[in-house]
Structure formats: C-alpha cells, structure tokens
Amino acid sequence: MLLPTEIKLGIVGLGRLGKIHADNLVRNVPGCRLIAACSVVPEELTFAKNSLQVTELYSSYDEMLASSSIDGVVIVSPSGFHVEQITKAIRKKLHVFCEKPIGLDIPEIEKVVDLIQEHPKQIFMLGFMRRYDDSYRYAKKLVDQGNIGELSVIRCYGIDPSSGMESFVKFAKASNSGGLFADMSIHDIDLVRWFSKTEVKKVWALGKNAAYPELDEVGELETGAAMLELQDKTIALVVAGRNAAHGYHVETELIGTKGMVRIANVPEKNLVTIYDEHGAIRPTSQDFPERFKQAFISEMNEFVACIREKRQPEVTPLDGLEATKVAAACKNSWQTNQLIDL
C-alpha cells in the first residue's frame, strides 16, 4: 500500500541506463515508488513488470503522462526525444528528471528552459551524475576552499571501453547520438563549468577515426579533443573517445597556483593488486555503471529529496543549455577546422 508521503514516479526508456535508474528507484531510493514504465520495446516492459513489479505499463508516453498515479517522470529515452518529453511533462504539472543532454537543438533547448523556469514549483533535474560522485565532490570542496589556489588548467578524459565500439558503430549508422562532444564530452564540459564557476569563451576541436574509419561516413567520431578558453583565461583540455582497450577511463586533473588535484588518474576497480607473470596489475573499471554506481544512486536520492522538500537541485536547466552550447561549438570547430567564439 502506498504511503501518502511516497513520491510516485514513471520512467520512459528502459535501455541500459534506464534499467539502472529503474532498479535504483525500486531498490536504493527510499521515499519513492516506481509505479509506471514506458517503452516501445516489449521486452523492456516485461523486465519492468517481472523484475521490478511495476504495475502500470505503457507503450505510449502520452498515455503514461495521463495517469493520475504519478507525481513525476524519469526520462531516459534517446536524446532527440528529451525536449518534447520534458515539455509535455512540465505542462502536465509533473516533476522531471532527465538524463543528459537536455536536448540536441539549441533554440529548442532555450524554449524548454524558459518553460521550466515558468514552473518553479515543479522540480527539474538533469542527469550530470558526476557532480554526485564522492571523489568529485571532495575535489570540488578543495577547489572552492582555495587549497590549490587559482585554477590555471583543467584536463578531462572520458573514454568508453573498446568492447562497446562495434555496437556503437551499428547505432551510429542508424541513429543520431548528437555527436561525440554532445554525447560524451558534455559531462566533462559540465565539470569544467562546475569547478571553474566560469563560462567557456572559445573552443578549438579536433578528431580522428583510426580503428573505425567507417565513422567518417556518418559524421561521427571515435576520438576527439577540444581546447577551451574560459572567460577568465583558464585553460581546459577535454579528450573524449570510445576505444579504451583497458576499460572505462574517466579522469580529471585540476592545476592551480598552489597545487593540483587528480581524480581517478588510474580508473581503479577496487583496491586489489594482482601479481603474476605479467607484473603488478591493478584491475580497472570496465563501464560507467560500475564506476559511477553510487553517483547514480545519490543523484536519484537527491531528485526525490528535492520533490519532498520542495527545493530545486544544484544542477539547473541552464547548466544543460550552456554545456550543450559548448558541445555544439566543439562539433562545429571539428567540422570546420576553425576556432569558434561562443
């Protein structure tokens, strides 16, 4: 039986990340109940029913929104649907959690940001989960306290494991991911803005398809890099890729006038070291669900807490807009081989 204080949620999209969010809502987020799920894939609805005991199943997003049972929605659909689905949910007076990016088209994002801001009583939260990772939060505290002085350089690596490359190539030939910078670097772009509290002024980006040159045909990138100049002249270097042979590699370095901080310079799986004929080996994280398991739980707990406490989260729709503007500028720079002013 539902308690009066329980937040009742529906989810749209039950792919790899959608399943993670759905499972967390059921097992790891107290004070809420996942009662509705929407997907156009029958097997995903079967998963929701059998594995998570979700009682309301929909193949139509509009039909799920029409349910009087839900207080909010969790959007984990493909990026191209985000703006439309946010808009419909906000107009239905529902709270919204949306995975990044907030959208792919800047004018559309600007309109939905305006709509969100017109409804301040409805909670809106964007899925920049690295802000909820313990290591990143600790580093943020050090920077804000001035422990490393004034920031000079921020370096970010975000590289997916090579084991996922073939499936991504198939996806890229059939669908639009938004491009490497919007799909992957957007997390690092958000971190740059978060740590520096400064906006990006200029970008210059490069890219190369070495292992999978067929990505050239669909305008996608296997590996890309961007140099960013911030408004206070802080330098940021963002490297994104889809072909890390050793696993999932996410690393951030912050260089200041008094010192420096590195977060996960070795993407360690745990504290185990293996000594064998290959030498001393530290196992590494193999995918983002493993590396950011707790961060995903923490951000969803924050979303539910914001609804219960009637307060907006730290991550705002403007964060999504600004990060997407930078990602779009990086893509434009790569395509035109020019320095882009924002």
TrEMBL record:
Domain of life: Bacteria
Residue ranges occupied by any GFO/IDH/MocA-like oxidoreductase domain in the UniProt entry: 136-262
Gfo/Idh/MocA-like oxidoreductase N-terminal domain location: 7-124
Family the UniProt entry places it in: Belongs to the Gfo/Idh/MocA family.
One Pfam family named in its UniProt record: GFO_IDH_MocA
Keyword Oxidoreductase among UniProt keywords: yes
Keywords: Oxidoreductase
Organism: Enterococcus rivorum
PANTHER family found in the cross-reference section: BINDING ROSSMANN FOLD OXIDOREDUCTASE, PUTATIVE (AFU_ORTHOLOGUE AFUA_2G10240)-RELATED, NAD(P)-BINDING ROSSMANN-FOLD SUPERFAMILY PROTEIN-RELATED
Keyword Oxidoreductase: yes
GO CC terms, sorted: cytoplasm
Protein name per the record: Inositol 2-dehydrogenase
GO MF terms, alphabetically ordered: nucleotide binding; oxidoreductase activity
Gene Ontology BP annotations: NADPH regeneration
